[in-house]
Write a structure and sequence with these properties.
The complex is a heterodimer. By secondary structure, chain A is mainly α. Chain A is built from 14 helices and no strands. Chain A is globular. The chains are: A mainly alpha, B mainly alpha.
């Protein structure tokens, strides 16, 4: 496709002075979108004859009611943030990556296979090597649609969706044969999971008795790194330039296809890393359903954070909390957690819908701003 | 069937007959999506619309016993989802790909939510029965493949020429294509870009609703969470695959469903190939065909571009 499709979430053109009103507007819009979506969710609950207030109270209590609930929200936020960082990079280049699910699987599969294959290696070597390999596997899963887009003009939205389906089937195949837990085979259960990974590759737990692992810290550090990459390096600048105006970028000598491939490859790498931390940080083995839909909800988190790596940090935590709270809500007041999926869908639509308002505001300001 | 091989006549008839039947939801959804895309709107939420349509038709049929009321419910749900998509992507000019993902998540979540609250367990309904067309259905081999199917299957194959006629031979169809290719020109001639795009998206969404109904009422006769398992995304791919032309889209849908039918029958007949790898085949094939397929020259030029009066 040759049409420019800039994902505009912030007014084009940077103003030199920082304005609180600007920040309030940019944070306020998504928060407002969120509130409206939650209200619609409440209305749906009422129609289903459920107590909306009680349901939302259970949701909040699920996160803030216990140390475990709170750490669990951070555990869920970690893969969301990692996927979201990749989304920030690719969407900023106007490359729409829907392939998070497949890329997570690629990373998780690679981490599982690699750490099992080299289980004699010491932890200081095996852990970073596993993470790197997982990153590369996810990157490869993103590179394929990227190169198809650049060379053969295959729409990346479609190819990434296809790569998701291929990833799921590949994982199912491997978990039923080559990677299946030998203990499960001996016991005759044939559970579709891998054997437990060697202990030296497990990410250290940050709080005892919880699942909170070092991956959360790694994700935040990477968020800062991605911010520096996108706004303080030439390559990052070119990625954003390609996203804002493909034609202008081409005319100024930027190799547009190269940066499109690069952005999709990096997006795949970060999603792959999300798969790695799920495997070596939370489950310590590969299970079916390892993605938990993070490939999609990571997009929500990134959009909510304004496609800004630092904005994605609180946004991921918010959506991680929602997911944890939704589980609790389902158990405590029997309101299906699917309610939250529904609300998330509305949030996505409202947030992208509200960009019209910020564009109009930017246009208005450009007209009234004094020349400087 | 111990001695039946994949190359025998009964197996071949079975595979082709399944292929025709399995193409049904893809046809409804992909033809609908082609209409929406022709007007310049990429609706990625087809899968979500299908899911809600499948649930609505299943639920209404379960409670009233009438499949036709079920079909009507699916169309109404499709229309509502189409309106939602239009408001976000046409009126509010949001990025279409992402709005569509939002619509998908909304449909996926809401259909699961409603199913869990209202039905909760696996229940089956009496869906559409096989209708053998007189005379034609008696033709050996061909009759069994083409004319011993249920009504939605016939409906889906009827939608293809209808959509061609609508897009190529009616004023509305030409308006849709004009708005999809050169919205500014259409606008200057007094065609309301907004209204035509609403119509295109909503018509496509009604067909996506029907696709869902055909799945739950003519193929599996039940509903479960994520029943479509990504069929709607395949439908979107088929539109590119078929170059926005209903007839070539039908070819793509048949090719895809043939691969699926082949894969199912290979398992039934015990051909030794891991089923997961067989299921993977159609997706690999789709990517391959997208890569070497028709040039994007026929792509609606304004696809995925919100219309802003005064630009260009």
């Amino acid at each position: 496709m040759s049409s420019p499709r800039a994902v505009e979430t912030s007014p084009p053109g940077r103003r030199r002075t920082f304005e609180w009103k600007d920040l309030a507007f940019r944070v306020g819009l998504p928060v407002l979108a969120m509130l409206i979506a939650m209200l619609i969710g409440a209305a749906m609950l009422l129609l289903l004859k459920a107590d909306a207030l009680q349901a939302y109270a259970a949701l909040v209590a699920g996160v803030f009611g216990s140390v475990y609930g709170f750490t669990q929200s951070l555990v869920k936020a970690t893969p969301l943030l990692l996927v979201g960082l990749g989304i920030c990079i690719s969407f900023r280049a106007s490359v729409i990556n829907i392939g998070g699910e497949g890329q997570i699987i690629a990373g998780a599969l690679m981490a599982t296979w690699f750490s099992l294959a080299f289980r004699e290696w010491p932890g200081w070597l095996l852990l970073p090597a596993t993470m790197t390999m997982g990153f590369f596997a996810g990157a490869a899963w993103g590179f394929i649609p990227g190169i198809l887009k650049a060379r053969l003009r295959v729409n990346e939205i479609l190819s990434t969706v296809m790569m998701n389906a291929i990833g799921v089937q590949l994982m199912n195949f491997l978990l039923r044969g080559p990677l299946i837990d030998p203990a499960g085979v001996r016991a005759g259960t044939f559970l579709h999971q891998s054997e437990s990974l060697p202990e030296q590759v497990w990410l250290p737990r940050l709080v005892p008795q919880t699942l909170l692992h070092a991956g959360a810290v790694i994700a935040v550090v990477l968020a800062i790194a991605v911010y520096i990459f996108l706004w303080r390096t030439t390559i990052g600048y070119r990625i954003r330039a390609v996203g804002l105006n493909r034609e202008a970028s081409r005319c100024s000598g930027i190799n547009v296809p190269l940066y499109q491939v690069l952005s999709l490859t990096l997006a795949g790498g970060f999603a792959g890393l999300a798969g790695v931390v799920e495997v070596i940080g939370v489950q310590h083995r590969l299970l079916e359903g390892i993605t938990s839909g993070y490939g999609f909800s990571g997009i929500v988190a990134a959009l909510f954070g304004g496609l800004h790596p630092l904005g994605a940090i609180p946004a991921s935590w918010l959506f991680g909390s929602l997911l944890v709270g939704a589980d609790k809500m389902q158990r405590a007041v029997q309101v299906p957690s699917a309610l939250i999926d529904t609300v998330l869908g509305l949030v996505v639509m409202f947030v992208v819908g509200s960009t019209l308002l910020s564009r109009r505001r930017a246009a208005r300001r450009a007209l009234t701003a004094p020349e400087n | 069937m111990a001695d039946t091989t994949i190359f025998s006549l009964p197996a071949a008839v079975g595979i082709l007959s399944s292929a025709v039947r399995l193409a049904t939801p893809y046809l409804f959804a992909a033809v609908g999506e082609a209409i929406a895309q022709s007007s310049g709107v990429l609706n990625l939420g087809v899968d979500g619309i299908m899911l809600l349509g499948a649930f609505a038709s299943f639920f209404v049929t379960l409670s009233t016993g009438s499949v036709w009321l079920g079909v009507l419910a699916a169309m109404v749900v499709g229309l509502l989802m189409g309106l939602l998509m239009s408001v976000i992507s046409v009126t509010f000019k949001a990025e279409q790909g992402i709005s569509g993902i939002g619509l998908y998540m909304f449909g996926l979540g809401l259909s699961s939510l409603l199913f869990k609250v209202t039905v909760g367990t696996v229940k089956t309904v009496t869906g559409f029965q096989t209708v053998k067309i007189p005379i034609l259905g008696d033709i050996p081999v061909l009759g069994e493949i083409l004319f011993q199917q249920s009504l939605p299957v016939y409906g889906a194959f009827l939608v293809v020429p209808l959509a061609w006629w609508f897009l190529d031979r009616t004023t509305w169809g030409l308006k849709i294509k004009a708005v999809g290719h050169t919205p500014a020109a259409a606008d200057s001639l007094g065609v309301s870009v907004v209204r035509v795009r609403y119509a295109g998206v909503c018509l496509g969404a009604v067909l996506a609703g029907l696709a869902g109904a055909s799945l739950s009422l003519a193929m599996v006769n039940l509903f479960q969470e994520n029943l479509t398992a990504g069929m709607g995304f395949i439908a979107v791919a088929l539109v590119y695959f078929g170059g926005w032309r209903p007839v070539t889209i039908m070819g793509g849908a048949l090719l895809f469903s043939f691969m699926n039918a082949l894969q199912l029958w290979m398992q039934v007949l015990g051909v030794k190939i891991p089923s997961e790898l067989a299921v993977m085949l159609p997706y690999v094939l789709t990517i391959a065909v997208l890569a070497v397929g028709p040039s994007p020259a026929r792509e609606p030029t304004a696809l995925n571009r919100p219309f802003e009066r005064g630009e260009h």
